[in-house]
Structures are given as C-alpha cells and as structure tokens.
C-alpha cells in the first residue's frame, strides 16, 4: 500500500509544474552566464562583429610606452599646404629635443621607412606608434607622413587630403629623397594610406625612388567597400564610427571647412558616404560620390607597380572587405606578394596570449630586410601586360579568380605565363636598323633577372606561409 501511494503522489503534480519548480531552483547567475555566452557566440559568428575579440585583446595588450622624442619637421607643399613629418631615429632614441624644421641628422647608410597612416590617423595613433617604435628598435629610421590637418599641424591652404590624390605623398617622398639621396627608401601604407601608396606606385612606375613597399589592409576598391559598409547592421556600426572620426577632423578645422563647403552637410552626415558627398567630393572636384570613389580605387594600378610590394589583408576585415582584393592583378604582377589571413580584423593582427605584438609589423620588417640585403635592390622590373580582350578598367572584383586560393590564404604574384622581363637601368639603348642585337646576351640577362627576383620573392613567400600557419593555430 505504501508503495502504491508513493507511485501515485507524483502523478498529482503536472509535469509543467515540476519543470517550473526545477527552473526556479536554478540560480539566476547560471541563466545570465548562459545568455551571455549565447549572445557572444551569435554576435561573433553570425554577425561577423569583432568588437568582443578586440575588447578582450585590448585589455590583454599593453600600451606602447614612448621612450624617445620624435623629431618634428614641417614640409610645405607647392600649393602652400603644410604636412607634418615626425621622425623616429633608429638609435631611438636619442633622448634629445629637435626644434621644428631643423634638419634631421641621420646616417645615410641606414634605410628610411616612410609611414602613410590610415583615415584620420596620425603619428599619435596607437598602431602607428607601435609600428614606428618596433621598426626603430630593429634598426630602421622611420618618418610618419601625417595627412594635412593631422598630427597637430594646421591647414594652411584650401587643398585637403583625400584618397584619390597622390600628390602629397609624391612630394614628401621626393623631398626625403633629395635630402638623403644615398639612403635606401621604403614605404608602408595602412588602410587608406595603403590605397594611396599603391596608387602612387602604379602611377609613377619605374620613376619612384622607393626600393620596396608594403600595403596593409588596403580598401583597394572604394565602391565595393562603400556598398559593404552599408550592407548590414554591423557594417553600418563601423561606418558610423569612421564617420565620427571624419566629423571630428572637420570640426577641428571648422573655420576653413565652413568657408569652402556647406557646413550643414557635415553636421547631418551619418555615414562616410554622406560626409564624402558633402565635403570630400566637392573639394576633390568630382561630380558625384561614385565618381570620387572610382577615382580613389587603387586595384587598377597594381599591374603597373615595378618594385617589390607586400600586400597583407585579412579575410575577416570588417571595414575593407575581402571582396575588393585584386586577386588576378596581384597574380599577374611578379613584383607583388599578396598575403591573406583568415583572422586579423582591420589592422590589429594581435599575436600571443598577451597581445603585445602585431603580426604584420614583423612580416613587413622581414620583407624589407630581405630586400635590403638583396643585390638586385636598386633594379626595377616592369611587367609586360598580357594581351586581353577585357576592359583594362575592370577590376578583379567583377571576375572570378582563374586559380583556386590555397587553404592558408597565401597568394604569390609569381607569373607562370611566359612574358618578357625588362630591367630598367640608368641608360637606354635605341635599336637602329644598322645595329645588330646580341640575342643570346639579352636572353641571358632576362633569365638572370627572373632568377634574381625569384630569389627575393620565393623565400619571403615561404616564410609568410609558415607564419600564416602558425598564426592560425
């Protein structure tokens, strides 16, 4: 009887009541923890947001402590504009103050790295300080070429910087080359700065005084990136953050901006496209925003780059989408090495549990060191473009790559098609009707130039491949 009564008692209560009672006995902290984990996983994997990862690595990382006094120089452009050049000497680092516009005394044998920061970034930005400090410690002389109106320098003309104009960086590089004609020059561009750098290298071709360059997280195609930043909620959040930086830049120089453009358009701008429509497009003399973005696009200049160029992009970049990467153009130009990683975001690429270092800074240092020690450092190679029926203005974003990208994301710009290589030296010889060309010697020279470039690009590609595998573990 007792057994039967015990069996009948639970039946008196509804199963829903039992579940509710069990739920009430569970601590609230367990519910909060579970909801938080589900929310984080959903936001990270389904919405492609990198806020949590950046937040965690930001708390783990340590700020760069400046143990040197950067030397400041003011460079005046032909239109009366002023550009701030902040130098970091490799000795670090001499603890001395240098007055503005004083000539910076450096060793002519020590190479100089010219840094071109990203949108609204300057020499006081965290990643720029990290890059300058690390390169200075590695034995390089570094100069940060701040954009007009940034780096604590006022705007002194009616001309502003924009992603479509390469005149400022061209003037700065020529100025530094004139000051230190015997010093090897290298350049690093980040984000918009990378876009400007690639565009400059393609425009000037063999005439650039640069030995090697690196483009980090370049947008490549501004039209594609603009559509990407307006596509989803998360991208629109990043878009608003970028717009806030642009509006702060405009407010810093409100007296000049309000005289040249409609200031009300700046105040109402919600996204980068709104700001570019109200400000940048007008100051760049473009009829529409899309026309300005087409003018900014750098991917169509990749094929004209004649110096070793390392391009690093992250496939999960939340700002400069991987859809804009010019895969085909990089493959066809043997001077270009394209390295992509599965993770890294937009510029962070943190390394280690403590996130004290940035991976791409180490990669750039290794790439430049290899170029510096190469006997073919001062030779520029022009790529003979293959005959194609496609429109030369088309970018690779409109076409499917003709080769599959390897699992590690590494793409080498080695050209497997047979083409003639031309080495440009200080003198040129014109072919006359009465002059016979030594075909054998010409072929030997061409074969030697190919071998020399492979000696440079090959080890760098192999090293980047190994680092990429380690970075993904």
UniProtKB/TrEMBL annotation:
Composition bias type Polar residues, residue spans: 386-399
Region (Disordered): 375-400, 418-473
Keywords from the UniProt entry: Membrane, Transmembrane, Transmembrane helix
A Pfam family that the UniProt record links to this protein: Hydrolase_4
Membrane-traversing stretches: 28-47
Keyword ATP-binding in record: no
Basic and acidic residues bias (residue ranges): 418-454
InterPro entries, sorted: AB_hydrolase_4_sf (IPR050960), AB_hydrolase_fold (IPR029058), Hydrolase_4 (IPR022742)
Domain Serine aminopeptidase S33: 112-325
GO MF annotation list: monoacylglycerol lipase activity; short-chain carboxylesterase activity
Tagged with keyword Transport: no
Similarity comment text for this entry: Belongs to the AB hydrolase superfamily. AB hydrolase 4 family.
PANTHER family hit by this protein: ABHYDROLASE DOMAIN-CONTAINING PROTEIN, ALPHA_BETA HYDROLASE 1, ISOFORM A
Protein name in the entry: Serine aminopeptidase S33 domain-containing protein
Species of the source: Buddleja alternifolia
Lineage, highest ranks first: Eukaryota, Viridiplantae, Streptophyta, Embryophyta, Tracheophyta
């Amino acid at each position: 009887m007792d057994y039967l009564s015990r069996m009948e008692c639970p039946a008196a209560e509804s199963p829903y009541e039992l579940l509710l009672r069990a739920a009430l006995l569970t601590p609230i902290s367990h519910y909060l923890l579970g909801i938080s984990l589900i929310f984080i996983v959903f936001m990270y994997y389904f919405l492609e947001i990198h806020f949590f990862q950046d937040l965690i690595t930001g708390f783990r990382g340590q700020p760069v402590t400046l143990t040197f006094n950067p030397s400041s120089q003011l460079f005046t452009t032909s239109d009366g504009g002023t550009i701030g050049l902040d130098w970091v000497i490799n000795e670090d680092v001499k603890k001395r103050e240098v007055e503005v516009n004083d000539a910076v005394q450096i060793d002519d044998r020590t190479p100089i790295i010219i840094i071109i920061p990203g949108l609204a970034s300057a020499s006081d930005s965290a990643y720029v300080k990290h890059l300058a400090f690390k390169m200075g410690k590695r034995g390089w002389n570094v100069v940060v070429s701040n954009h007009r109106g940034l780096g604590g320098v006022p705007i002194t003309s009616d001309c502003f910087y924009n992603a479509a104009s390469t005149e400022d960086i061209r003037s700065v590089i020529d100025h530094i080359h004139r000051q230190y004609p015997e010093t090897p020059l290298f350049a690093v561009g980040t984000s918009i700065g990378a876009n400007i750098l690639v565009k400059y290298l393609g425009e000037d071709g063999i005439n650039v005084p640069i030995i090697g360059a690196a483009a980090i997280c370049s947008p490549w195609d501004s039209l594609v990136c603009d559509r990407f930043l307006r596509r989803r909620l998360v991208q629109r959040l990043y878009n608003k953050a970028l717009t806030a930086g642009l509006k702060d830049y405009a407010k810093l120089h409100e007296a000049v901006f309000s005289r040249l453009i409609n200031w009300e358009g700046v105040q109402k701008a919600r996204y980068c496209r709104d700001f570019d429509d109200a400000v940048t497009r007008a100051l760049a003399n473009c009829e529409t925003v899309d026309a300005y973005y087409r003018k900014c696009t750098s991917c169509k200049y990749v094929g004209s780059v004649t110096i070793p160029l390392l391009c690093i992009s992250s496939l999960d970049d939340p700002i400069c989408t991987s859809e804009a990467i010019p895969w085909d153009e990089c493959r066809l130009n043997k001077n270009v090495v394209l390295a992509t990683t599965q993770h890294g975001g937009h510029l962070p690429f943190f390394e280690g549990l403590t996130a004290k270092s940035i991976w791409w800074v180490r990669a750039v240092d290794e790439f430049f060191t290899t170029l510096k020690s190469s006997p073919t450092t001062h030779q520029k190679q022009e790529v003979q473009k293959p005959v194609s029926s496609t429109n030369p203005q088309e970018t690779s974003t409109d076409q499917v790559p003709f080769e599959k990208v390897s699992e590690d994301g590494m793409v080498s710009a080695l050209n497997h098609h047979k083409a003639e290589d031309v080495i440009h030296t200080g003198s040129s010889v014109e072919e006359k009707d009465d002059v016979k060309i030594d075909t054998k010697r010409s072929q030997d020279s061409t074969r030697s130039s190919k071998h020399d470039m492979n000696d440079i690009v090959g080890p760098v590609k192999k090293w980047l491949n190994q680092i990429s595998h380690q970075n993904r573990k």
